[in-house]
Design brief:
Blueprint lengths: L9 E7 L2 E6 L5 E6 L5 E8 L13 H8 L15 H6 L4 E6 L4 E8 L3 H13 L5 H20 L1 H13 L13 H6 L2 H11 L5 E7 L3 H12 L23 E8 L4 E8 L6 H13 L5 H7 L4 E7 L7 E9 L5 H18 L3 H17 L4 H14 L3 H11 L3 H11 L5 E9 L37 E6 L2 E6 L6 E8 L13 H7 L10 H9 L4 E6 L4 E8 L3 H13 L5 H18 L3 H13 L11 H10 L2 H11 L5 E7 L3 H12 L22 E6 L6 E8 L9 H12 L5 H9 L6 E6 L8 E8 L4 H18 L3 H18 L3 H13 L6 H10 L3 H11 L6 E6 L5
Parallel strand pairs: 3-7, 8-12, 14-18, 19-23
Antiparallel strand pairs: 1-2, 2-3, 4-6, 4-7, 5-6, 9-11, 9-12, 10-11, 13-14, 15-17, 15-18, 16-17, 20-22, 20-23, 21-22
Helix pairs in contact: 1-4, 1-7, 3-8, 9-12, 9-15, 10-11, 11-15, 16-22, 18-23, 19-21, 24-27, 24-30, 25-26, 27-29
């Protein structure tokens, strides 16, 4: 790729992989550009070369707090002018956020390309004109502290933090990005300003633009808005602390309330620019990526673990290689640790096979291809390469991986998997509680006053015209779309065989049937299927949702026939082997017990139980009951359920990407043409919600530093009701995104929470749904947070939605729908959901108009009809104060 720009304000540096690098001569800003006109969207991202590695004792977490402060106002974008960043950008349909990590901080906008300059203006303004006011720091401190507390709720996060803190003693990777609690609470505004004035300069940043734009126009925009600044008037401080050599193994143990044990074993590895990292990351795949990997077979397949994964992320400085294992109930920590160490020794002694290396390379090749599926994916990948110190690591990585040999993998294993350089951590759960016996004890009527979200919306013209619909066989509808992306294909689909089809005496049957589909067929065992998929870097997964058995696959375009063959085989001919079933059963019980430690999950279950009777699709059983039902299922039950509900009739399959429609239709027809047609009718909800009444339910979970809260009420309508979209819009204005009322007040102004939102849920298949508000609070701020939330709800009903709010959120929803159609996954998901709801393809084009047509009186009328302040259910889960 050659330089095509004539803009003399920039110096062309180099090109690699279709990406061009420029430097703004006036101030040293690095600019990376890649035009991609496959969708009318673009991503603008600014990466600052500063992260938690640039912090010291006393102000850990400062980089992250500063990231939050950058949303609190700057010269041109602030609350006083009515131009808050979230309002301006989200009202254009942009997806915005920022992240902080060890080596970098980044801010980004994914937005319709006609609004690209607005994103550039925002980032230019806050690069040097952020306010960073003390009053903003005070409110934002409690927000960040709540984020810290939510992390502490999770035993894995707590263990991971301590492993890094133990492994690194001098280097600042010792502390996590969010920092230590006392530093979060006490860091001064002056320190944050000093940090900002030290690192936030053009010559310490990289601006990345990926997507639908013209290079000349974008360079002119960047010069216009960033060119007003000079480079830093000082040298950017270098972080020079190196970690001393570790001279012996280190160990730690966390003991606290919980249900499942975790083992983590870490070893020191080199920095991300080292050529050895390619061999290390292939070694990681061989050990723990996919069902064919060594440790998965010895731990998960053996029933000793629910899950496991390898951490091998590359950083600017030497980091950690970690094996994490989430154990099944009753498994011994020492046994798991020894299995990992034995496998390491075997790898060091005997090496790896050529087949293992080839499989790992195929997985990586597929991952790299999918990293170019959408402008944000490319920008995000570049962001991490920039942080390591060389953006071309992203564009040259495939050749580097391809060059790795088995001998090199054995060499790095012997060099880095050394006992004296290891840190081992255990999470040991104590005093397990019985799920479902503690929550609900204090439920009482009370007349107080003041992965659920509503769908995004919007549109792209003529979406339906780009999709081919084909009834390839009776009872199976195939939708295909070639969206211009290169090499990759995303496949998704469904069969109406979800949880609602389970018998009343065992509602876990559908989920267990889905979980067994990848455990072997009558023609191939699980290992053979895994090997066939992983050898080409493809994947197939299954999941039972409320109404559907969903399946998702991703692969490179040349491997579509193989994926269709294996998908059909697993759907049609599962063997349900007894030994594998016992392992899956044990693993699911462990996953349920772990879910029982999650405060948000427990609060959501409590809300569903208060609003809906048993047997209603929106009701949720207690964790204890679900575990009991899992234990009752037999292999014969699975076979009967599969016979009765799996087949043609209402099957949908969607393929998006670099797909050849006619060839795919032939493959699908050959794979499914003689499958049985299921006689079962589509599920229609028969029961209704409980009568509305106010009430409170507290679910007590020990040793939690953050509480999750839900407010909610059944609404008695489904998504086809005339009031549905007006109500969704009203709840979106209340709490649909960062610029909505709840985030603007309860979080941004009052600093009471890290996250709060509202929406409508449970409205599919004629179900009478509910509206909800969710929030997370420190235990001592729970009642204050609830009161603040109710005050906003009361104001919404009393004063109503304004015309300006409605107009802005119409733009938000329609614009974000357009942005959501920029990836193969996003398109496939929308097409499948549309088909499941029984709608024509043209609905994808009509939807934006439905949103734009909403009137103010419709929205305010719906809010008043379906929200009754006297009949709200309130639930909370966590470690609650006695009062």
């Amino acid at each position: 790729m050659k330089d095509t720009s004539t803009n003399s304000a920039f110096e062309y540096i180099k090109s690699s992989g279709g990406i061009a690098e420029y430097r703004l001569l006036s101030n040293g800003l690095t600019v990376l550009l890649m035009e991609d006109h496959s969708a009318p969207v673009a991503t603008f991202m600014v990466t600052y070369h500063v992260g938690s590695r640039n912090e010291a004792i006393g102000h850990t977490g400062a980089t992250h707090i500063l990231e939050h402060m950058m949303f609190k106002g700057s010269k041109d974008y602030n609350r006083e002018k009515g131009t808050r960043v979230a309002e301006v950008l989200q009202n254009l349909g942009a997806q915005i956020n920022a992240t902080t990590w060890m080596d970098r901080t980044n801010y980004f906008e994914l937005l319709p390309s006609e609004h690209l300059e607005e994103g550039i203006k925002v980032e230019a303004d806050r690069m040097r004109n952020a306010f960073i006011r003390d009053e903003d720091r005070q409110s934002e401190m409690t927000v960040v502290r709540n984020e810290f507390e939510r992390g502490e709720n999770d035993p894995f996060n707590a263990l991971d933090k301590q492993i890094w803190a133990t492994a690194f003693q001098a280097h600042p990777y010792h502390h996590s990005t969010i920092g230590w609690r006392s530093d979060i609470e006490n860091v001064s505004t002056e320190r944050l300003k000093e940090f900002y004035d030290t690192f936030y300069w053009p010559n310490n940043a990289t601006a990345t633009v990926i997507g639908d734009f013209d290079t000349e126009e974008v360079l002119a925009m960047i010069e216009r808005h960033f060119g007003q600044y000079t480079s830093a008037p000082h040298d950017i401080p270098a972080m020079y602390t190196a970690e001393p050599a570790q001279e012996g193994p280190r160990r730690l143990e966390i003991n606290r309330s919980g249900q499942t044990g975790i083992v983590g074993i870490a070893h020191k590895i080199p920095d991300g620019r080292s050529e050895e990292m390619y061999a290390i990351q292939i070694m990681s795949r061989i050990l723990g990526e996919g069902k064919s990997s060594r440790l998965y077979r010895k731990l998960v397949d053996a029933g000793l673990a629910m899950d496991m994964y390898m951490w091998d992320f590359a950083f600017h400085d030497p980091g950690l290689f970690i094996a994490y294992v989430f154990m099944t109930p009753g498994t011994d920590h020492a046994r798991v640790e020894q299995i990992i160490l034995d496998e390491y020794e075997a790898l060091k002694t005997d090496g790896v096979t050529a087949d293992e290396v080839a499989r790992a390379k195929a997985q990586i090749r597929s991952d790299i291809a999918f990293s170019r599926d959408g402008s944000y994916s490319v920008a995000s990948s570049l962001n991490e390469a920039i942080a390591i110190g060389d953006w071309t690591l992203y564009t040259t990585q495939l050749d580097k991986y391809d060059a790795v040999t088995p001998a090199q993998i054995r060499e790095v294993a012997n060099k880095y998997l050394i006992k004296d350089h290891s840190t081992t951590g255990w999470f040991v759960p104590e005093t397990p509680e019985q799920f479902g016996l503690i929550g609900g004890e204090v439920h009482q009527p009370q007349a107080w006053r003041s992965a659920d979200a509503a769908p995004a919306g919007g549109g792209v013209a003529s979406v339906a015209d780009q999709i081919t619909e084909d009834d390839v066989v009776d009872g199976l509808t195939l939708y295909t779309m070639n969206n211009g992306v290169q090499d990759v294909v995303t496949i998704t689909g469904s069969i109406p065989a979800g949880d609602v089809y389970s018998p009343k005496d065992n509602p876990m049957l559908a989920e267990l049937t889905a979980a067994m589909l990848d455990q072997g067929t009558t023609g191939r065992n699980k290992a053979a299927i895994s090997e066939a998929l992983e050898s080409v870097g493809a994947s197939i997964s299954f999941a039972s949702t409320n109404y559907y058995l969903h399946f998702t696959a991703r692969c490179l375009k040349d491997d579509v026939p193989l994926v269709i063959e294996l998908l059909a085989e697993q759907l049609r001919e599962p063997a349900f082997p007894v030994a594998e079933f016992e392992t899956v059963q044990k693993r699911l019980i462990g996953e349920l017990e772990r879910a029982g430690e999650n405060t948000r999950v427990r609060a959501r279950i409590a809300l569903a139980q208060q609003l809906y009777p048993q047997g209603h699709p929106n009701h949720r059983n207690s964790i204890t009951d679900e575990i009991k039902f899992v234990k009752q299922v037999t292999v014969n039950d699975l076979k009967v359920f599969h016979r009765d509900y799996y087949g043609l009739g209402n099957m949908v399959l969607v393929a998006v990407g670099d797909v050849k429609g006619r060839a795919l239709a032939r493959d699908v027809k050959a794979a499914f043409k003689d499958w049985q047609v299921v006689a079962a009718d589509m599920f229609v909800t028969q029961s209704t919600a409980k009568p509305s009444q106010s009430g409170i339910d507290f679910v007590k979970i020990p040793d939690k530093t953050s509480v999750d809260m839900y407010l909610g009420q059944a609404i008695g309508i489904d998504r086809d009701h005339d009031d549905y979209y007006p109500l969704v819009m009203g709840l979106y204005i209340l709490g649909g995104n960062f610029s909505a009322r709840l985030m603007s007040t309860v979080r941004d102004q009052q600093g009471l929470t890290y996250g709060i939102s509202s929406g409508v849920a449970g409205v599919d298949n004629n179900s009478d749904g509910y509206w909800f508000i969710w929030g997370t609070f420190a235990p001592d701020l729970l009642e204050t947070g609830r009161a603040a939330t109710l005050e906003q709800l009361k104001l919404l009903l009393e004063k109503g939605v304004s015309a300006e709010e409605l107009a802005n959120k119409k733009n938000t929803i329609t614009g974000s729908f357009q942005v959501g159609l920029a990836t193969t996954t996003g398109i496939a998901r929308q097409v499948l959901t549309n088909a499941e709801r029984g709608r024509e393809l043209t609905y994808l084009d009509e939807y934006p108009d439905k949103i734009r047509a909403l009137e103010l009186d419709q929205v305010n009328g719906a809010l008043k009809r379906y929200i009754d302040l006297d009949k709200i259910t309130y639930v909370a889960a966590g470690t609650l104060a006695e009062e």
